[in-house]
Amino acid sequence: MPQAIVFLDQTLCGKGRALLETQCGLLGAAHGFQIQRVVVHDPEDPLPWTLDEVLKSGPNGIIVPTLEHIGFRARDVLARCSLVVGRPYGWYHRGAMDRHIAGMP
């Protein structure tokens, strides 16, 4: 079963972080992914997990509730793995450069 990482930006989670984690986990499972871990990027953490570090860990997919959680870096993610976005819904395979993703030419 392919491994995926749920990536959340702490500044966008608010009080609904647990709900976002659950929703992303269910979305990943519906697409055949096993959630390897949930990473919450907190810019105030002295040793924060960044998106680059997550991508270097070699997941088959990254799951986010919205593109804002990856800072609109869909191109960087798709160069290394698949991307599943909750809202607006999208499942983009590695290497796909879909012009419908915000921030893509």
Automatic annotation (TrEMBL):
This is Uncharacterized protein. It comes from Nocardia cyriacigeorgica.
